[in-house]
């Protein structure tokens, strides 16, 4: 049975540009003052259209011609670069904003979680915020009362129930917020990236809860940059690109399409890179990443067993004492295979403000043939969140040139079975 | 599962469902009002006393300036402080409600851009906590009336009607401003200005009987004139004539404000998430 049917949905935002010529025009006529008065008068009469003559409206279609159907009980992942229209789509589906064109039919009660803890008030206690947040999410008072104990147990905050949440640690805060959301019982659940919070154990718990929800026959729509969670949770996926659906189908195929979209190149400018990036960039910002072979040639294709040299240029806004830097190696499905960390090499240095380039040499890369991505991160010390973080910044290819292992190993075949890392071993009969 | 509710999302929201939907979300209104009440005087030393101090001090100043220095006349069987305080009550209720309600959409932008619910709940919620402040001040007024030996008459039963009139007025204005403020933040500066001017042009420090007869109808175009006159008529004993034509003007204007406010707000609310 169809739970959500989306027909020809589009969303247009009007962006205003000031037209330079017309302003110049007023000045030469010396009529700027008169025009000001006229504009003010028009403004009062038609607050929206009065600036037509001085401001050019440009239509920007955040979404265009979106058509899809979701069956009841489906768990659909929505992926795409930043600005592809994922959030706009979720906002329209959850009725926060209206579409410009088209129509959507939704069967069943919808709950959307575009953020956890919406409406939490810092001065209120945990107990009070459970009720407030539950009501905001659309639960009835009786419903919240009935589930209250369950929510508290899930959040693990029994002891602090009567403490204002402003005294909570960020972990407790997020756990409480998610616990309320997790106990909603809508027929359709719309979730945006909320799993990117909390520690690993809690994330697992959340995924479990969402999995449970979907097994109860609930329909789940899930936006995430984490391909790992999409794979774990969804049975279908949509790939949005520039406001249109570029691919829809099963999860693995869609993720592959998505990752092919990341450029394969031996260098990548990071100064404006936005995809999968987070962090405050308070003391450092990555500018450029590039990959080289051991002889100093730019290179994006490496043989198993080759050395890979990664050069990472980074701007430091201030002096920083012994930051920890890393480069993550991921599979195209987003699974973290390894993290080349500065601390693993005992590399602890005080860094002055300015632009610096780091060179990371991987002496022998032993992953199976295929495509992988590299993503840098930096943090001021262990345990704090990254100041700049890009989950996948650049793509490299690994091929088998029979440099490692037995000649007839057929590493390509093995890699297709989902195994990634080659660890050499030797065999003998005793 | 064929009994499931079907929601149809189109570019235009159907206005017909707005009322039913508002009812469905009444629990949210309750909790938002309750939240405002809970956090209102958190981290203050004298707490709820603030609800009383502000109108009380203004009353003292007005009594000195208008009553003692300007020697303006008293209405009914009362003393000047009681007359001023009877007006101060609806005025503070009106002005605080207006202030909070008209800025509420922008102040709750976070919620509006993340969750769907009937937006009109947001500007309505602040009225409840102000009603509580009103109730507290009302007790003070009764004490003040006892002090100055103002007789309590049966006319007090009409008081709720005038309180409702001030709700209608404040909500009407607030809905307009809240919706406009979402897009044009100029209104953030206009509201304190309205309140400041309103305190002097409304008959708070003086009786509206001092307004020349030929101007009174025009004076009632300020709907708060109707509310304040009504409060004084209810509370200050015998000998006060309610100026009916003026009251009708005030009531009509308030109702028009509210109806147009609701219509305007409903039309604008679809855009809130885009412009906030």
Question: Would you kindly provide a written description of the structure presented here, covering whatever features stand out?
Answer:
The complex is a heterodimer of chains A (430) and B (276). Chain A has 430 residues and is an alpha+beta fold. Chain A has three domains: 20-53, no CATH class; 64-260, 3-Layer(aba) Sandwich (Rossmann fold); 267-415, abc- transporter (atp binding component) like domain (Coagulation Factor XIII, Chain A, domain 1), CATH 2.70.50. In chain A, 25% of the residues lie in helices and 33% in strands. Chain A has ten helices and 20 strands. Chain A has helices spanning 20-29, 32-45, 86-93, 126-136, 141-155, 170-182, 200-215, 227-233, 251-260, 411-415; strands at 2-18, 55-71, 75-80, 101-107, 110-113, 188-192, 219-223, 236-241, 244-249, 267-269, 277-278, 284-292, 301-303, 308-316, 324-331, 336-341, 354-362, 370-379, 388-390, 394-399. In chain A, the strands form four sheets. In chain A, strands 11, 13, 15, 16, 18, 19 and 20 form a seven-stranded mixed sheet that branches. In chain A, strands 5-6-7-3-8-9 form a six-stranded mixed sheet, with helices on both faces. In chain A, a hairpin with a 4-residue loop joins β15 and β16 (336-341). The longest helix of chain A is centred in the middle third of the chain and has 16 residues, at 200-215. The radius of gyration of chain A is 26 Å and the shape is globular. Residues 19-32 of chain A have low confidence and may be disordered. Chain B has 276 residues and is mostly helical. Chain B has one domain (18-275). Chain B is globular and about 65 Å long. The model of chain B has no long low-confidence stretch (mean pLDDT 88). The chains are: A alpha+beta (430), B mainly alpha (276). β4 (101-107) of chain A pairs antiparallel with β1 (6-9) of chain B.
């Amino acid at each position: 049975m169809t739970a959500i049917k989306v027909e020809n949905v589009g969303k247009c935002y009007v962006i205003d540009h000031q037209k330079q010529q017309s302003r110049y025009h007023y000045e030469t006529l010396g009529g700027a003052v008169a025009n000001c008065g006229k504009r003010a008068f028009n403004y009062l009469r038609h607050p929206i259209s009065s600036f037509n003559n001085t401001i050019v409206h440009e239509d920007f279609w955040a979404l265009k011609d979106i058509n899809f159907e979701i069956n009841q009980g489906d768990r659909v992942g929505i992926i795409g670069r930043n600005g592809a229209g994922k959030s706009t789509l979720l906002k329209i589906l959850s009725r926060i904003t209206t579409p410009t064109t088209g129509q959507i039919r939704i069967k069943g009660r919808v709950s959307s979680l575009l953020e956890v803890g919406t409406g939490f008030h810092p001065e209120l206690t945990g107990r009070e915020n459970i009720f407030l947040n539950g009501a905001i999410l659309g639960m009835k008072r009786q419903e919240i009362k009935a589930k209250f104990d369950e929510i508290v147990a899930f959040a693990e905050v029994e002891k602090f129930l009567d403490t204002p949440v402003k005294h909570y640690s960020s972990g407790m805060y997020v756990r409480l917020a998610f616990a309320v959301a997790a106990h909603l019982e809508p027929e359709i659940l719309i979730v945006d990236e909320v799993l990117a919070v909390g520690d690993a154990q809690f994330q697992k718990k959340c995924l479990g809860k969402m999995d449970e929800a979907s097994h109860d026959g609930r329909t789940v729509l899930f936006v995430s940059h984490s391909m790992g969670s999409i794979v774990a949770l969804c049975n279908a996926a949509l790939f949005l690109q520039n406001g249109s659906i570029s691919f829809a189908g099963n999860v693995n195929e869609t993720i592959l399409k998505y990752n092919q979209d990341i450029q394969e190149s031996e260098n990548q400018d990071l100064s404006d890179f936005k995809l999968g990036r987070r962090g405050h960039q308070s003391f450092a910002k990555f500018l450029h990443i590039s990959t080289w072979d051991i002889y100093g040639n730019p290179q994006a294709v490496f043989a198993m067993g080759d050395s890979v040299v990664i050069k990472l240029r980074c701007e430091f806004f201030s002096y920083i004492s012994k930051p920890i830097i890393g480069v993550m190696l991921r599979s195209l499905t987003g699974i973290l295979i390894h993290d080349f960390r500065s601390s693993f090499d005992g590399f602890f240095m005080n860094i002055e403000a300015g632009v610096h380039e780091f060179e990371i040499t991987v002496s022998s890369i032993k992953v199976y043939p295929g495509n992988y991505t590299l993503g840098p991160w930096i943090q001021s010390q262990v345990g704090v969140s990254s100041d700049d973080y890009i989950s996948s910044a650049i793509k490299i290819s690994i091929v088998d040139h029979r440099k490692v292992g037995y000649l007839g190993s057929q590493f390509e075949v093995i890699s297709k079975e989902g195994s990634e890392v080659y660890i050499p071993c030797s065999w003998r009969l005793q | 599962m064929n009994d499931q509710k079907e929601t149809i999302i189109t570019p235009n929201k159907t206005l017909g469902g707005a009322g039913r939907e508002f009812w469905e979300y009444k629990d949210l209104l309750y909790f938002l009002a309750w939240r405002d009440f809970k956090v209102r005087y958190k981290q203050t030393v004298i707490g709820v006393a603030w609800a009383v101090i502000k109108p009380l001090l203004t009353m003292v100043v007005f009594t000195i300036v208008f009553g003692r220095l300007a020697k303006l006349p008293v209405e009914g069987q009362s003393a000047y402080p009681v007359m001023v305080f009877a007006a101060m009550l609806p005025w503070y209720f009106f002005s605080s409600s207006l202030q909070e309600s008209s800025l509420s959409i922008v102040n709750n932008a976070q919620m509006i851009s993340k969750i769907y619910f009937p937006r009109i709940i947001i500007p309505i919620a602040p009225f409840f906590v102000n009603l509580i402040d009103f109730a507290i001040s009302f007790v003070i007024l009764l004490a003040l009336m006892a002090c100055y030996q103002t007789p309590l008459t049966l006319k007090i039963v009409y008081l709720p009607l005038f309180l409702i009139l001030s709700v209608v007025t404040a909500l009407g204005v607030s809905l307009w401003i809240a919706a406009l403020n979402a897009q044009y933040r100029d209104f953030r500066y206009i509201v304190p200005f309205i309140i400041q001017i309103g305190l002097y042009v409304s008959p708070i420090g003086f009786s509206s009987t001092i307004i020349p007869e030929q101007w009174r109808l025009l004076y009632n175009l300020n709907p708060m004139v109707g509310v304040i006159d009504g409060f004084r008529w209810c509370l200050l004993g015998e000998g006060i004539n309610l100026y009916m034509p003026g009251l009708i003007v005030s009531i009509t204007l308030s109702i028009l404000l509210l109806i147009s406010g609701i219509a305007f707000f409903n039309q604008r609310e679809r855009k809130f998430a885009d412009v906030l």
